[in-house]
Design brief:
Number of strands: 27
Radius of gyration: 51 Å
CATH topology of the largest domain: Rossmann fold
CATH architecture of the largest domain: 3-Layer(aba) Sandwich
Shape: rod-shaped
Number of domains: 4
Helix content: 40-55%
Length: about 850
């Protein structure tokens, strides 16, 4: 007998459990490691070598029998399909892992040994023809299998878990569940890896954790009391938490532990409030035999991620035709039948059978869903795709060899795939559509490109259970969910559950994190002035665009009003009327003076300068109209320059009149040399020279940085202000400063001459007028700088009107009084009479 040495031989002992196996012969064999039964070890002290006949109690998981059926179903339909491997038949060898590492190693070695006998490390007669292995259900089983299979380069298929975790995160963010609980089953380190790698990514996306609890699996009967104590503490913490959503991470057997959860309460098996359970793809609603009648309604409304699958009617037909009488090679079905239907098959070696007798014709569709389902589950669908992927890879290999003239047929292909790792190349590049239309392929890392369905569990008190597909997450199409199709736990009254640490911050508020607490726990504070928040739970408030401003509630931006000093509004209308009224009064004064052109009071102190002053005051009142109305290019150029030049003319005239008064009184002294300075030439020179300086400043201003129409978005919160930008602020204050300089000189000279002896001392009136003028423009600067928008323009207009009215009233009102109402005083003797 020729034997091929595989690995170094080792000896180990394992408990003597019933060997569950299912063999079907074929040219090529697909291995399968199932998780059908589990054993719970009792505490033992190995003081001496254990006997090989040592037995341990075990429990069967009836629902996992579907995985075995799925592999047999797929192989049958591939063999019947003439389009795939037409000259080759597939077979399979399936063994039970019993959920333990020891039995997984044993089952794996059985796959690698001769079919007739268990000879570890040897393959005799080369009759095994093992090409690939499908399984196991849990990550722990897969890792144990890989420990041995990696040595032989046996192909294995593993779905990409990152897609599932991204889907769970998308689900939490979609429903805005930011405050959740996490329960992790940690028996092989996978739970800890989940905590260390996945949960931090969730936190980066805004998820916080009310609690994170680790639960160990039950490995011996001695741990039951400890499990009940820990479970009671966990139950109390979950029920007292404000988290309505609990993410449960675990393997397939984790559901057995979760089924205990309602029985941890003081009043089992009910929960004082609802919980939305989110479960990973490894978990299904499964029952141990002793949990057949246990409460399942607590899982009503749960959301589970399962491997994407479609219903296959052929599979249901295949399952309906199975029973212990027509599946003699199936070493699993008798135990499954007895546990599922609570009956016993007659045994000739035993006397009368106590209890129900199995007839073999019981109906599988009568079993409750936690025990068995007729439709293909996600795990079974994955097995179905795995077997088809192997078949297509073999078919591609066969086609490739035929293309290159290699051997064909059963014997040829059987020898062409030795060693086993040659199948890897074809398996990684395989791409096909299965019978349900789903595309099956692998990425560049050899991982199965597959998505996950989001399933809503609908559970009734009578153990009725069905799944409703409400969404999916796919590496190609992303995450989708139909929230309206979800049936929630009855405690939530069919409204979407909330799971928050604190109530959401409404629009107009922002979050402020509480010190010492997770970032999901926060206070809500109003947005600061000028900012808004249009959505809930904003970390910070935002500014509106320049054309908008926040409303009163600070939850939306509304367009700003266009603002400028208009003739249509009361303020603009009143200022315009005032300017026109003062202009009319000035014109009347000018007309009065021209009518009494030759009277002494008009001729006194240079009649031409008086007319020039009146005309400049008339223009000052009228130039105020340039500041009212929509700013245009021309008006912006004329506003400040015209105002500055005209006012400079007016103030220069006042200065000339003041200096003339002083010189006139000085010239009356005997022997005075001032007589030659008294006359029109001096006054005209003063007016012209002072005005030319201001004109030069304005020309320099217009040539370097002229004013222009502008839009102010920021000065007034609720308005877009149309204004004239001064261009150069320095030149604006230079023009204003020069005018103030002339006014101060006029005021100073007039103040010194206020007590000159005369019955009509014009210097006294000039002093009052310049006092008003200076007071107005000194108060103008701070007032102008403290106001915004159109009110800045209004302040300047008011200053123009007030200062001009002060000059008009103080200088010309006394003269008009004498001209109109005291004409007898309008003579030369009165004007020059010495009061002394």
């Amino acid at each position: 007998m020729a034997c091929e040495t595989r690995i170094v031989q080792c000896t180990f002992y394992y408990p003597q459990l019933p060997l569950h196996k299912y063999h079907q012969s074929g040219d090529l064999i697909i291995g399968g490691i199932a998780y059908y039964a589990g054993n719970v070890a009792s505490e033992m002290l190995f003081m001496e070598e254990p006997l090989p006949t040592l037995t341990e109690p075990f429990v069967i998981v009836p629902k996992h029998y579907q995985h075995i059926t799925a592999l047999a179903f797929t192989v049958k339909y591939i063999n019947e399909n003439l389009q795939i491997l037409p000259n080759i038949t597939l077979g399979f060898h399936i063994y039970d892992s019993y959920g333990s590492s020891m039995r997984t190693y044993h089952a794996t070695m059985l796959l690698l040994s001769s079919p007739e006998r268990f000879t570890p490390n040897y393959l005799c007669d080369n009759k095994k023809n093992l090409i690939a292995v499908v399984g196991g259900l849990d990550a722990k089983i897969s890792i144990d299998m890989a420990t041995l299979l990696n040595n032989y380069k046996v192909p294995q298929m593993v779905p990409h878990e990152a897609v599932q975790y991204e889907g769970i995160l998308s689900l939490l963010l979609h429903f805005r569940w930011t405050w959740i609980g996490v329960i992790v089953i940690d028996d092989d380190g996978s739970g800890e890896r989940f905590l260390q790698t996945v949960l931090p990514k969730f936190s980066q996306s805004g998820i916080c954790y009310a609690f994170i609890k680790r639960i160990s699996t039950l490995s011996s009967f001695a741990e039951i009391n400890e499990m009940l104590e820990d479970g009671a503490k966990l139950h109390n913490e979950v029920m007292s938490s404000k988290a309505n959503v609990v993410l449960f991470y675990g393997e397939s057997n984790s559901m057995f532990i979760l089924r205990w959860f309602p029985y941890f309460s003081e009043h089992p098996p009910s929960l004082p409030r609802g919980i939305v359970w989110i479960m990973t793809a490894e978990m299904e609603l499964t029952s141990m035999v002793y949990q057949k009648d246990w409460e399942t309604e607590i899982f009503h409304g749960a959301l589970s991620f399962t491997i994407q699958s479609k219903n296959l009617p052929e599979f249901k037909t295949f399952v309906e035709g199975r029973n212990p009488s027509n599946t003699k090679e199936d070493g699993f079905i008798r135990d499954f039948w007895q546990q599922a239907f609570d009956c016993v098959f007659p045994d000739p070696t035993v006397g009368d059978v106590k209890g129900n007798v199995c007839t073999g014709v019981e109906k599988l569709e009568s079993l409750p869903a936690p025990f068995f389902e007729m439709s293909m589950s996600g795990h079974s669908y994955c097995i179905y795709n795995a077997v088809y992927a192997i078949a297509h890879a073999l078919h591609d290999m066969s086609s490739s060899r035929v293309k290159h003239g290699a051997m064909e047929g059963r014997r040829g292909l059987k020898h062409q795939i030795q060693p086993l790792w040659q199948l890897h190349h074809f398996l990684k590049s395989v791409s096909f559509n299965n019978s349900s239309g789903d595309k099956i392929s692998f990425d560049q890392y050899g991982e199965l490109v597959a998505g996950f369905d989001v399933i809503n569990w609908i559970v009734s008190p009578n153990q009725t259970f069905h799944r409703v597909k409400v969404g999916r997450t796919d590496p190609r199409q992303g995450f989708t969910i139909d929230g309206d199709a979800i049936t929630w736990y009855s405690w939530f009254n069919q409204s979407q559950p909330l799971s928050l640490c604190t109530e959401r911050c409404h629009p107009g508020f922002r979050k402020k994190v509480k010190e010492g607490e997770p970032f999901c726990c926060y206070d809500c504070i109003p947005c600061p002035e000028g900012k808004f928040s249009a959505q809930e739970d904003m970390n910070d408030c935002s500014k509106c665009s320049d054309e908008e401003y926040p409303n009163k509630n600070q939850d939306v931006c509304i367009p700003k009003d266009i603002s400028f000093l208009s003739y249509n509004e009361p303020l603009g209308m009143s200022l315009a009327c005032s300017a026109l009224s003062f202009s009319y009064i000035t014109a009347l004064v000018l007309g009065t003076f021209m009518k009494h052109h030759n009277t002494p009071i008009v001729k006194a102190n240079n009649r031409d300068v008086t007319y020039t002053l009146l005309i400049s005051l008339l223009l000052c009142f009228l130039c105020a109209l340039l500041f009212i109305g929509r700013p245009e290019k021309v008006t912006c150029l004329l506003r400040q320059t015209a105002f500055g030049i005209i006012f400079s003319v007016a103030v220069s005239c006042v200065l000339a009149k003041t200096i003339t008064v002083v010189l006139a009184f000085m010239a009356t002294k005997p022997g005075s040399r001032m007589r030659k300075w008294v006359g029109k030439r001096l006054t005209n020179s003063i007016v012209v020279s002072c005005c030319l300086v201001q004109v030069g400043l304005c020309i320099l201003w217009l040539g370097s940085s002229p004013p222009f129409p502008d839009v102010d978005m920021h000065s007034v919160a609720k308005e877009v202000v149309l204004e004239c930008n001064e261009g150069s602020v320095t030149m604006f204050y230079c023009v204003l400063g020069y005018m103030s300089f002339l006014a101060i000189i006029s005021f100073t000279v007039a103040f010194l001459a206020r007590k000159l002896p005369d019955s009509f001392n014009e210097a006294k009136f000039i002093t009052f007028s310049m006092l008003i003028f200076c007071s107005v423009w000194l108060s103008f600067v701070p007032t102008y700088l403290s106001t915004k928008g159109k009110y800045m323009v209004a302040v300047e207009i008011f200053s123009i009107l007030a200062s001009s009215a002060g000059l008009l009233g103080c200088i010309f009102a006394p003269k008009c009084y004498i001209i109109l109402w005291r004409p007898q005083l309008n003579n030369r003797e009165y004007l020059i009479r010495n009061k002394a």
